[in-house]
## 1
Amino acid sequence: VVRPGLLLAITLSLGLLVMAAGLAAGTLRRHLDDTAATRADRRWLFVVLALATALQLWQLWFGLPARWELDEVVAADVIGPARAWFAGGWHDLYPALFFGSLSVLSWPFMAAGTMGLVDLGQESAAVAQVVLYRLGMVVCGVIVAGLAYRLSMEAFGQRRAAIWAGFLAAALPLLVYLTKFSKADVPYSAAFLAAALFHLRALRTPTTAVYGWFAWWGMVAICLKDQAYGLVLLPALHLVWIRWQQQTGEGVVARLAGLAVDRPLWRAIVVSVAVFVAGHNLLFNVEGFISHVQLITGGGSQGFRTYARTLAGQAEMAGDALAMVPWTFGLPTALVIAGSFVLAWRVRREALAVLLLPIVSYYLTFMAVIQYQYDRFYLAPAVLLTAIGGLGMAWLAASPAVWARLSVAVAATHLLLLGASINLLMGRDSRYDAEAWLAARVDGDEIVGMAGPRSYLPRQGRLPVTDVEYDWAQVSAAPPHFLVVNAEFARRDRHADFFGPLLAGDHPLYREAARFKSSPGPAVLAYRPEFS
């Protein structure tokens, strides 16, 4: 039941999201006006952004009200710390700015709760806030697709290539997946890409305003997710080099003296420090910031290291990182992107270098240091590659050769099918079938035992559920009528004594009553070797 107080809070939060989307749309509209975009170009760009919106909204409700994504931030993670203004030693896996940004969407709920209009303890209020958080990720995701267009346009000045870049980002499976969950990956990528846009602009106009905006968005990205420092570090040094070349004095000492009073650099430094202090709430939560750093450099990362701290280990990691390119884009689009490097070199090589510099910086100063990698770590670098890949897509589409047009059609269709596969697989998740099976068979006095992390198991719903420890002595004392396990998790070695008899089918208490394994159906992504 949607009560008036809850409806009011939802409406106010939606209003904030609409305002954010409107500001982004206004910025894009001014860009199109300033660059004299044709009606056809505007229409195609609108189609691309509408495609991004549709792919990201589809399956936005995945898993709710359960927490099927391990690191997703929910209302309970935000409201308590927000009421304490993220001070008093508060710290978490993400920096304070990410939680603070989400808390803006919870402010109407907190105010309504204070006035007695909303019970924040009810599931409806908690789920509504998570949906709003996810809608915030969608706004950021559509902005990412728009920034792919802006980056390509700023770099190479070819409108059709820029629109193709936006398409490649919109259909990117990584982006389609990550916008479904309130995690920091998409917002920090959007902030960094905005900084990259001003980095490109500095090639033409290295003004004080450009440097200030680069510093603003670069530091916002870092304060949303710490690993963004790797994307910003070498580009920042490159911007210093640009100002070094702008100095008119003769000799090293004279140029250093000029840098010491250089207004663009000082603007960037002041903005960076201010955003860093505010983004981490350093004035009121120094101990929390220290604890956060200890978390992400200690237990939050050290246990995940995959590669040996040797030259051979680094070589193996680099090879796996390169293999992520065809995995991320699909082989046809990856080949087009590879060919686009030649086109980009011919069109504007300095812009190509600026687009590649953050990727090199990120790998050398972050990935090679932590020595483990997930594909989601490469969302921002992947979008930078789309800004380059748009050149190849546009060149093939404009070619009179049949093979060229066929190639671009295959690459675009394949990538779009990969992006849609994310949503198709989410909708076919076998946990939904397991829930329906249980709901049809469990009586009111029967208990359902859940063995394993809840993020890998069906949602509880209205079922009487209890969590089962990995100890058969405890289970035998009061065995649940039904026992639910995730077979993929159960095959891991860490709890073999508990799950082994169940998987072997010779357990004295339980027999297999049902097994659910969904077929991928039309989701082409699932037929790739990495899955099968």
## 2
Amino acid sequence: MTNFNSRSKIVSVGTIIVIGSALLTSACSNSGNSSDVNSFGANSPQSGLPKSETKENLELLEQTKALLDAGKPEQATKVIEKMLVNDPNSANAHHCLGYIYHLADKQDKAIAEYTRAIEIKPQEADSWHARGESYMSKKLFEQAAMDYSKALMISPAYHTWYRRSCAYIEQGFYEKAIADAKQSIALNPKYAPPYLIKVSAERKLGLNSEAEADLLAAKSLNITNGYELGLRSEFLWEDGDPEGAAKDYTAIIDSQPKNSGWFYSRARCYLALEKVKEARADFDLANKYEPNNDWYSDWIETVDDLEYDLSHRVRTPAQQWALACSAQLFAANGHGLHSLSGRALTEANKLSKKQSLTRSWGITSRADLLNQLKNLNNGGGHDGLWQSYLRIKRGEIRPEQAAAVARDLLRGHFKERMAVIDEYGGVFGDRGLCAWDLCRYINLVRWGYLIGFVSEKEAYSLMMPVAIKIQKKYSSWEQMNEEYLIGRRFWSYKEWKDDIARTNRITKLLLTQKTSPWVTLPWKTKLDN
């Protein structure tokens, strides 16, 4: 099992759908059938055209819809300009123009146009809803919720209940998010997105059995439109279910067979499932439909690295077990879990890791590496700092008496780290931060082998005693991982917080994916032979 991390140049397709799901007014909507998805990317019930529109403008409006259907916003804008010449107070024209600005991520201009449409026709729910979408794109969730509330007062549509639940969950109003999601489901029980919002909110509230029931309900829905499939597939991916996500991406690809983004998204699922052949085929298809992009060569290198990793598995269960102690960080970096190096021994990979070790660890030589390993193994890593904090908590020393802690006071880290001590200091006992330091020790050994600072034989002679120490201190992969991640929080609260979603996904994959060493190797695997 390997993790697929989005390159900085790739935007998640599912994220695009969530951010760009503005609903058009009745002027820009297609069929009123709630199970259909219009070409503008959202479900939009028909609500009828205002009688004030002239016959000419109604004809121009149909042209606008056709051009937007065809993905030609520039031509659509020109038609809208004709509508505004005919009637500067055309609410439909202002709304459609707002939608085009929304698609172009010019949210301030979109909001201005939606506002003008609302001023002209304040009882048009779709304009309130659409302005809420632009506020959501700007992360102005309170304003978005207010606009959705206005829309709901006019027309309590299931999609608006759902979107207000999204705004509430972003603000941490989990009970309100659940209540709105229930309203959406009551109006349209076959609409998947509100089930997913409920799952997220219920998990935040610790309602795990309810969340599991809602997730099962969402997965059991027979979805056919791209908007819902996109949301569900992205949710399943982030939830650590690449197999379920891949099925949904396949359904989308069946209807949009030339969209490169969906192939990239499905390929990452295949990488996580260690299906090299399928991943390579999807990347090739993505490149076919969007050639000459900057992503393709990077992804093919990732596939090559995974292929190397799978074909160079370490020989014994004991060696596999030792490598598995570094699985969390190797997976986070998109590297393999089965070979000593985790990636191909290419000059590019060696150079990249040398630069990383210099930047993050100050390691530029074999001697530096061995000194750092000795330091981590003898309590000189973050466990030493942890012990200083424990002594402060017990009143044995003052913060300013410990040099490292004094530095934390100056840098503003003291309160964050003391909060971790308050929560876990009494729980960890003499283990301290061993999981954090010793798992990183395994990481460093593997990286040292990759760049040629240690031989294969030496790598295992360094790793195995530490692996035995880890096995004796913890009772399961789950416990080791949990305390490793708490160590990461102690190391950097910001890094830990920013990576919570990714870390949760990787943890679930490691604990459930059938190819994961945490699944295939019992914790009590014999190591001393």
## 3
Amino acid sequence: MRGYAGKFTYVDLTSGKIWDERFDEGFARKYLGGNGFAARVLYDRVPSGADPLGPENAFIVCTGPLNGTLAHGSGRAGIVTKSPLTGYFMDSYFGGEFGSYLKQSGRDMIVVLGKSSKPVVLFCDDDQVTLIPAQELWGMNTKDTQDGLVDKLGKGISSVCCGPAGENLVPIACCIGGRRAAGRGGTGAVMGSKNLKAISIRGTKDIHVKDMKGLLKFHEDMRENFLGLKGMIDVGTPVLVNMVNQVGGLGTYNWQEETWNRSQKISGERLVERHFIRSWACFACNMGGCTRVVRSMKSPSVITEGPEYETLFALGSNCGVDDLDKIIEADRLCDDYGIDTVSFGSSIAFLMECFQRGLLSAEDTGGIDFTFGNGETIVKCAHLVAKREEFGDFLAQGVKAMAQKIGQDAHKFACHIKGLEPPGHSGRALKSMGIGYAVSSRGGSHNDARPVSEERMSQEERISTSENEKLMIAYDTANWSAIGDSMIICRLSEACYGKVLTQTHVDLINLTVGWDMTLDKLTEISQRIYTLERSFNCREGVRRKDDTLPYRFLHEEIPSGNSKGLRVKPKELEAMLDKYYGLRGWDSDGVPKRETLAGLGLEDLITPNLKNG
């Protein structure tokens, strides 16, 4: 079996025990890799009702069969855990080269259990795995931590770590590998809760594929497709600012508006024109790199990798901040502290609307001015959130928890799905994203259902496309995401390999692993993985009532722009849920049916906790 290392490494931080477990081809054919492997292990290892910040939660770092090969973006890795922000299944991915190093060290996945009594670093030096005391690294930012690990462990390593936000158990804390973030759902807080400061990898082993000549030809045939991504090559993901604004789906002022007349001031074009230093690419990037390293004009010593589109939306338009220097500064702080910029910016935007509506005042916030457009506030709050100091301790909880504590009408403009704040892709302007967000395992994530297809439609096409067609976009792109996250390849491959599952994905797997996979079989694997995630959430109590959208997305029409008048009406959502559940083989309450689980080879998931009908 090529493409895989063939083993998982388990680490129990409580006892200090470290061991390997092998998996066979049958397991690989059933769950493929990456997210599929990790979802199965998470379901098996984390009991129902486990505290996400307790020792019973698992922190899993995973790769797929393509990692470390020629496949586009195959240096990526995934982190899978139970989220402290939502209480549900969470997977988050980051680029760079960590994924290739992990595979080259001779393992496909690391599963961290328990909790260390003192800060440690887990170091995998090929076959040798050790826990190293890391007291001197505790409290360091993510860059200094990784630099310190090179000094301590030597060159040729790649690390992923938590920052001070993770150490302080901030529910919106992320993990940072290199300067790339596994951003969503509080992964950094789980790492910090285990007193695990970092995982470092040195890998020198070869990765064997089945048909190297075939793979070389495959990638040569794909080359023109990648070179055709001109916007991403020239500008990177920030090119989406103006594009999404033109669609009329750029969240502005906490999603009160979805078109912003100042979008040009935070656009990718402006970022490249005024702040650009150099481009940067992940391992095995066939585009030449979509990331831009940029500098603040007002503070030249402030340099950051990014900000990516989601950050420009979250800290920019959604907070009404059009000062790129402040956004760059805040982005750098979030990377250093290990804070998810999407949840962080969305939480500030929510508080800004609370300020606007008189639900909060400067007296409540310790003197912080949460007026829309205040760039100083986003910078100041990054420090306070990471340290959980003063009002930052309240802000660190995320939108859902803050709205519950503020009360009054705050729930009507608290934009989150299952506790996770949505990124910069509208659930109103794009109804495929509306249903996609509602049923997403992660909540407010655009990496289950994907927005690309509908964002590229004209206004007339978006309005004329039937609800059923939009439902199928959500369904088909979620199937692709389940496979893409199990191969673990860059999301930007969708424009080249296909926005839904295609024979191209099948060929890529077969050439790498040496299987006789068919498109039908690959689709079945995607359904199995998605249903496994859903089953984990149902075991934690998720039901139809939780598959919903923010009040604003359901009850308020977009007031202006090219998506004026659009929203997802409650009756529309209910109708789409019925159809979506039917496609997935779930019952009317959103629980996978017994026959569905049995048909997918998940008979062991039929338990009283799922209350299968």
